[in-house]
Write a structure and sequence with these properties.
alpha+beta; Phosphatidylethanolamine-binding Protein; 5-stranded antiparallel sheet; 3-stranded antiparallel sheet
């Protein structure tokens, strides 16, 4: 009976010891909890803040400037914006978002280039052909000066004394004449001085297309040295050179014809009037354009 009681005592003691050991276990377990505190590692959610990659919306702003290029550029800017916003859903990683932003920037850039091209096209549209014009440092063109309206002839449009015939006190030298390029396709020019009364005083033809000036006092020869290859005729029976205004107060025109032929053969090379008649009628359709410089001989004379 004593042995049975002693055995029960040892069993009870063993149970007490086992209970004490199980209560002491939490200390080592909590150190393992530090591993479980790997929850801090799961706090690598900070890594998931790679949402910063979603700031690929920067791609959107990169696309924006493209829109300022014009209608074409606006379209490019829009596509640049959508490419950038496509980067936002890549919340999984900053690299993905960043590449999305780069795509937006690229699309926006091409949009801007397209806009620039559109603008230059507008600039090209503003262009135009130059006017075919005839001028002289000797006197100004009288737009309102006509045979029917001689009062519209201002003194600035009067022929200088040097350019009228000796019969009215002048020197009968041709004035310097300048002009802009003729219409496209011009191969030669013809210059004439015509009295609106009417009477043609002088014509010089086969002027090379590259010529832009007749120097003052063209030589009095049938084929003067300058312009090279040209021929001339006037109503004078004494020479073939320039014959200026010969009546006081009349209205005259220098007429410059642009032709599509390199050489011109007048119907009658000995009659300058046929040159004007032929070119004004233009039955052969060789005249591409005409420039006029109009003036008047001084009604008060040249004495």
């Amino acid at each position: 009976m004593f042995e049975r009681g002693l055995g029960g005592f040892w069993w009870g003691a063993a149970l007490v010891l086992l209970s004490a050991c199980s209560e002491a276990d939490p200390a080592p377990a909590s150190s393992g909890g530090a591993g479980g505190g790997g929850g801090a590692g799961s706090g690598a959610i900070a890594g998931s803040t790679a949402n910063a990659g979603s700031t690929a919306s920067a791609g959107s702003s990169a696309g924006g400037p493209g829109g300022t290029g014009g209608a074409g550029g606006g379209s490019g800017g829009s596509s640049g914006s959508s490419a950038g916003s496509a980067g936002q859903p890549q919340a999984g990683g900053g690299a993905g978002g960043a590449s999305g932003g780069a795509g937006g920037s690229s699309a926006g850039g091409s949009g801007g280039a397209a806009g620039g091209a559109g603008g230059s096209g507008g600039a090209a549209g503003g262009g135009g052909a130059a006017t075919f014009a005839l001028t002289s440092p000797a006197f100004q063109h009288g737009e309102q000066c006509t045979q029917q309206n001689k009062q519209g002839c201002m003194p600035t449009s009067y022929f200088p004394k040097a350019n009228v015939m000796t019969s009215i006190g002048g020197s009968n030298m041709s004035p310097e004449l300048n002009w802009t390029a003729g219409p496209a396709g011009t191969m030669s020019y013809v210059m004439c001085l015509h009295d609106l009364s009417p009477n043609t005083h002088w014509c010089l033809w086969n002027i090379p297309s590259a010529t832009r000036q007749l120097a003052a006092n063209v030589a009095r020869q049938k084929m003067p040295a300058a312009p090279a290859g040209s021929s001339q005729d006037s109503f004078s029976g004494q020479d073939d050179g320039y014959m200026g205004p010969g009546a006081v107060g009349n209205v005259y025109e220098f007429r410059l014809y642009a032709l599509k032929t390199a050489t011109y053969a007048p119907p009658n090379a000995e009659n300058r009037s046929t040159v004007v008649q032929d070119l004004e009628a233009d039955d052969d359709e060789i005249v591409l354009g005409k420039a006029v410089l109009r003036g008047r001989s001084n009604p008060d004379g040249y004495n």
